[in-house]
Write a structure and sequence with these properties.
heterodimer, B: six-stranded mixed beta sheet, 7 helices, 10 strands
């Protein structure tokens, strides 16, 4: 065992002597690994960043909120089975809340009806188009995930009396009110005036597709009065008490919905239960595809780096054939020689890996600084993984030449000039 | 030759070769490098192996040095059957029992004299402080006490060969096997190196010199001459 330790130390010493003796060669060889590691780690960062932004987007939907709608989220092939379903009306939410209150051990917290349309909000000559308008009840405050930047949500009384009040997303408020505080001011939608009573804090966009900051929340009764749309139907958002028991809560909700709808046993549900995992189901394969393709392509760069190391180790073995012969004559065993050349290739590779990690982490910081919106993040796990990957690259690349060196016939090696 | 020539009484048997044959395959041709050699070498001998090129001298040296194994025949080193050994066992024998001195010195260019001499001790698993001590001691014995931290390219040819001899001695081997040790040296330095071998012989080392030079062979106490893979003559030199 001692012998192995001494041989190991000697090998490390020789490896570093070799690397410093052939600086240019070592730098060029390491460069292959550096490029490979930078490519792989940057891709890794992009993938983790994508994941994080995806998760935070989903959290905006509320990970403890179930959506009851006419249509399911995601693609529908048998549309004829859905199109004739009765529209959901706000009364369903009221009925659900009655049942929830009557059930002592319920997993559900509250049901909130939401009517949705898109429209233009005006104030004087300023207008903002494409605003997502949600008419809802006073319970909406219990399921909302955003904070208020100023003001408050309408109360139950305001909601019931169809008060013309509204809460604005921060982008809408900022566009309409540049110098004055929004709360207390009046805006107009299709000629109807609404008083602003609150502004939401910035939430960001959902997967970069849909901004939560361009919304307007108003009492559902006011919505119905001014915009109509009763025949279109609403959606019911139901908050659960414990998000760890989401599946059970869904089962309970389905039961309650069937009671509200008066459905008979054997009849299939005439409503859809939607949740954030519907997005996950659709986006996970996409995410995986991007990750696999990205890591494969960047992995090729690393592979080229590995070939560079293999090549240079072959050259090194060839150049030092006589030295190998001498070492064998002096009593070096096969494993001694194998170890020596493996450690050399691993050293080059790991040094390349370390430089690569330093480069890619500074690149990551730089990118994050210039494009703060780009989802890219650096994780310590990535450092460990890249170090292991570069060490593995060194082993894989160095093994064939090192094995060849260890099997050299000492007589032939000593005669080599 | 100013040194007084003394012959030490021979010790126990070290090398026992009997009917050794070595064949090489060169393409379709079979080369009979050794055609049946029998040789006994004892401790405290000073032996020269001579012969023209192609006589099988190098093959015999590789065999004696356990770098190669015979195709047929018996080879025992200190009673151990070398002919049946595998690579790593041979490496062990070379490490512990044989000190090599090469014509081209074969020092590691990037290591200083001390490191070069320590190398066999690393393979023997000796701890570093003992390695250092032993290597320093041997380098002093060969007259390089003040050159320990010089790299080979900072040393003269004679000094390099002295480092190589120190490296051969450092593991206290049973035999020292020198292959044309003066072949790359000028004649004056060659004489100095042969004087060093003489001294080492008197100190109780067993020395085998492979050479084609009569002048060098004359230093030995016994000369074995090879021709065409066979021993032509084997006798003591007065």
């Amino acid at each position: 065992m001692n012998t192995f330790y001494y041989e190991f130390r000697e090998s490390v010493r020789i490896a570093f002597a070799q690397i410093t003796a052939h600086k240019m060669r070592s730098v060029l060889t390491a460069l292959g690994v550096i490029i490979g590691i930078v490519a792989v780690t940057l891709m890794g960062m992009a993938i983790t960043g994508m994941d994080t932004s995806f998760e935070s987007s989903l959290a905006m939907l509320g990970d403890d909120v179930i959506y009851v709608q006419k249509w399911p989220w995601g693609p529908v092939v048998d549309w004829w089975n859905y199109t004739n379903r009765p529209p959901l009306q706000p009364i369903v939410a009221t009925e659900l809340n009655k049942l929830i209150e009557a059930a002592p051990s319920t997993l559900l917290d509250v049901a909130v009806p939401v009517r949705v349309r898109s429209g233009t909000v005006k104030r004087g000559d300023n207008s903002v188009g494409g605003v997502y308008m949600a008419g809802t009840s006073g319970d909406y405050g219990r399921i909302i995930t955003a904070d208020f930047r100023e003001g408050r949500l309408f109360t139950e009384t305001e909601a019931e009396s169809a008060c013309a009040v509204c809460v604005l997303g921060c982008d809408v408020a900022d566009a309409l009110f540049t110098n004055v505080p929004a709360v207390g001011q009046t805006i107009q939608v299709r000629g109807y005036p609404f008083q602003v009573i609150g502004v939401l804090a910035r939430q960001g966009s959902f997967l970069g597709l849909f901004s939560f900051d361009t919304q307007m929340i108003l009492p559902i009764k006011a919505f119905e009065k001014d915009f109509g749309g009763k025949n279109i139907g609403a959606e019911i958002r139901v908050k659960v008490k414990d998000k760890k028991r989401l599946e059970e809560a869904k089962e309970e909700l389905i039961g309650l919905m069937r009671r509200v709808r008066g459905q008979l046993p054997g009849e299939s549900d005439n409503f859809s239960i939607n949740g954030e995992e519907a997005f996950k189901e659709q986006l996970d394969p996409v995410k995986k595809g991007i990750a696999i393709a990205g890591l494969f392509v960047t992995g090729l760069a690393l592979f080229v780096g590995a070939i560079g190391i293999m090549n240079i180790t072959f050259v090194s073995v060839k150049e030092r054939t006589k030295e190998i012969g001498t070492r064998k004559a002096l009593g070096a065993k096969r494993r001694t020689i194998l170890l020596q050349f493996l450690i050399e290739s691993i050293s080059v590779s790991v040094i390349g890996g370390i430089v690569g990690i330093i480069l890619s982490s500074s690149l990551c910081l730089l990118i994050g600084h210039i494009f703060p919106k780009l989802p890219i993040s650096f994780s310590p796990v990535l450092v460990v993984v890249s170090l292991l990957v570069s060490a593995g690259t060194g082993i894989v690349a160095g093994f064939a030449p090192a094995w060849g060196a260890s099997r050299l016939d000492p007589v032939v090696a000593l005669r080599y000039e | 030759m100013s040194t007084l020539r003394t012959t030490r009484p021979i010790g126990p048997l070290v090398i026992d070769i009997d009917g050794v044959v070595k064949l090489y395959q060169m393409g379709t041709e079979t080369i009979h490098a050794l055609r049946g050699i029998s040789l006994k070498i004892h401790r405290n001998e000073y032996l020269a192996i001579m012969g023209p090129s192609g006589s099988g001298k190098s093959t015999l040296m590789n065999m004696l040095g356990c770098l190669d194994t015979p195709t047929a025949g018996r080879y025992e080193f200190n009673g151990k059957n070398v002919a049946a050994m595998v690579d790593d066992e041979l490496a062990d024998i070379r490490n512990r029992e044989i000190g090599f001195v090469f014509q081209t010195f074969n020092l590691l260019p990037r290591s200083d004299a001390l490191r070069n001499v320590e190398l066999p001790l690393i393979y023997a698993g000796i701890p570093s402080d003992q390695r250092r001590e032993r290597a320093q001691q041997v380098l002093e014995e060969v007259g390089l006490g003040n050159r320990m931290h010089h790299k080979p390219n900072e040393l003269s040819g004679g000094q390099r060969q002295r480092v190589a001899i120190a490296r051969a001695l450092v593991n206290k081997p049973s035999i020292i096997l020198a292959d044309e040790p003066t072949g790359n040296l000028d004649s004056q330095t060659g004489i100095e190196i042969m004087a060093l071998f003489e001294e080492l012989y008197k100190l109780g080392n067993t020395i085998i010199v492979v050479t084609h030079e009569e002048d060098i062979a004359r230093h030995a106490r016994r000369v074995v001459r090879l021709r065409d893979g066979l021993i032509e003559s084997d006798g003591s030199v007065s």
